[in-house]
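Lab notebook page, bench 4
Experiment: in silico fold of construct C2
Operator: M.H.
Input chain length: 282 residues
Purpose: comparison with the prior construct
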Amino acid sequence: MKKTSLLKQLAAIALATLSLTCSAQTENPRGIYKMMTIIGKAGEVKAPFDQYKICTDEVTLTLSMKQAGYFILHDNDKGKIFNYTGEQPTDENDQSIKIFDSDSHHFSLKWWSNFSNHLIFPENNWCTEKYEADKYSGVARPVFEALTATPSIDSSNPLLGTWRILGMLDELKGAKKQVKTLKANYETSKYVGEYLSIAPSSIVYVLVDKNSGGQLMKGGSKDKNSLTQNDQTRAIKWISKDIAAMEIRKENISNWQILERVTDGQTLMSRIVSSQTSNRNR
């Protein structure tokens, strides 16, 4: 009797463990996930794209890294929020996106492919993409660090952090007055939504727009009075503790790009999500 009782207890524990394991694979994916493999017409292959899904409660965004550090962020899934659906279609006519095997660590995405003569994607059949969290390529990692960093002031180098581009000045004479004008006209200027994230060993330009994207640039800043941008050293002049002027020198003529520190605590990613959600609801 004791042996039977023990077996029942072990069986109950095993069933409980299995139940927890199964339920853990039915969570709604939330966070940043990298595409690892694709199951297409040639079976499962390593992902040929450096692609990521940003899964939130408001929108699902796709970030694709391109050549020369360029990246684009877009609502590739047309407003689809990635909630768990299970793998199987509801009927023979169901071709909607399927999210399954999903939790905070990974998820699988199955979509109906109409591609013809594609190297990987099948024609008139299902294609499955597998994603994992906390995986980044070498070029994508500093981009995501820039997008998700909470703006703050670094006491060792106040130039590090997130800045919005206010505009350009020909000279810095009367700079404070000119900056007031730039700020007053900012919302109607061509610089709306343009940001720089400056780190010690990288600079990321970000455009927050309905066509969000940007570029990871070589360089960075080691001190508050200069930075290197794509192998060019640029002088920094401080107009105030939160306003910096970056020298843009061409043919021995200096112009100044005016940067304003972001102080509202919003990450660039949260700005992009808000922008994409707003554009989708218009």
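Observations: The two ends are 69 Å apart (CA to CA). The longest strand covers residues 123-133.
Next step: discuss at group meeting.
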